[in-house]
Amino acid sequence: MKYFGGCDSGSTYTKCVIIDENGKMVADVTLRSRINAVLSAEEALKEAVAQVPELNSAEDLAYLVGTGYGRNKVPFADENISEISCHAMGVHVADPSVKAIIDIGGQDVKGIAVDTDGTVLNFAMNDKCAAGTGRFFEAMARAFEMSLDDFSNLSLKAKNVIPITSQCTVFAESEVISLVGEGKAMDEIAAGIELSVAKRCFVMSKKAGAVDQITLTGGCAKNAGLKAAIEQVLKLKVIDLPIDPQLMGALGAAEYARQKGNR
Predict the structure, then answer these.
(1) Angle of CA points 159, 203, 210, to nearest 5°
(2) Cα–chain-centroid distance for residue 155?
């Protein structure tokens, strides 16, 4: 049996997926990224390989594709492919019916339209500002003095919304801290935060060609409050993927590795 790997070296998390020659996922790892992207990739690959008894090291993989922010730093990679292409392919593997993606990463937001074969039809990217990214949500959770998981569910309890006017992450964090200090309802502030990010996704959804449904990838796809806000603002059904949405880049990279390694 041949095995193929994909390593998504992200700015916040490093993900690794191994699939067999039939496309079945046999290993996956998600680790917080270190400052050194090489060390992050090495650790993720080592943990993933350990989940497959037939493999002793990443060098035993028939083909390995690196992707993400640090894709050029993935050890033993035979090739590197952009995260936009890999997220499209990963979603296609997970659910071929999905044709539109909003990928919210640690430092950027992307809208991606997927063709019938998993390749990219069109895309748009906002990497000029951290607002609405994973870093933004981490800053908001820090302002609330709670975990990211707790923050992601907080807005679901809100009966009203307190608008957040600042678009910049730094100013938004200051605005939120002031509102909390004034004793405003925290769930209503959280609802305002989620709605402000959902509105920023509008252009991305249009570039992704979304008509009636879309899916979210990246760590922020696990934010239940954001999902609800996107459905409300964009009037689109958000499709839940059958595989961890944070793994889509690594899964797509592994599938590209399988296609190239089997030629």
Answers:
(1) 85
(2) 21
Helix, strand counts (H, E) of the chain: 9, 10
What does DSSP assign to residue 51?
A: T
Give me the chain's average pLDDT, please.
91
Q: What is the DSSP pairing of strand 100-104 with strand 213-217?
A: parallel
The length of the chain in residues reads: 263
CA distances from 215 to 33, 87, 243 (A): 24, 11, 12
Show Cβ contacts of residue 90 under 8 Å, excluding neighbours closer than 6 positions: 217, 243, 247, 248, 249, 250, 251, 252, 253, 255
In this predicted structure, what is the pLDDT of residue 243? 97
Q: How confident is the model at residue 134 (pLDDT cuts 50, 70, 90)?
A: confident
pTM: 0.91
Cα distance from N-terminal residue to C-terminal residue, the chain: 15
Structure tokens at 103: 């990928």
- Taking the C-alpha atoms of residue 212 and residue 244, their distance in angstroms, rounded to an integer, is 22
Tokens read off for 135: 């870093």
State how far the Cα of 115 lies from the Cα of 100, in Å rounded to an integer: 9
**Helix or strand run (H / E) with residue 103:** strand 100-104
**pLDDT per residue over 63-77, tens digit each?**
999 999 899 999 989
Nearest to 74 by CA among 89, 59, 90: 59
CB 164 within 8 A of CB 144: no
Here the tokens at position 260 are 């190239």
What the chain holds in terms of domains, given with CATH numbers, is 3-86+246-261 (3.30.420.40), 97-240 (3.30.420.40)
Element (H, E) at 249: helix 248-261
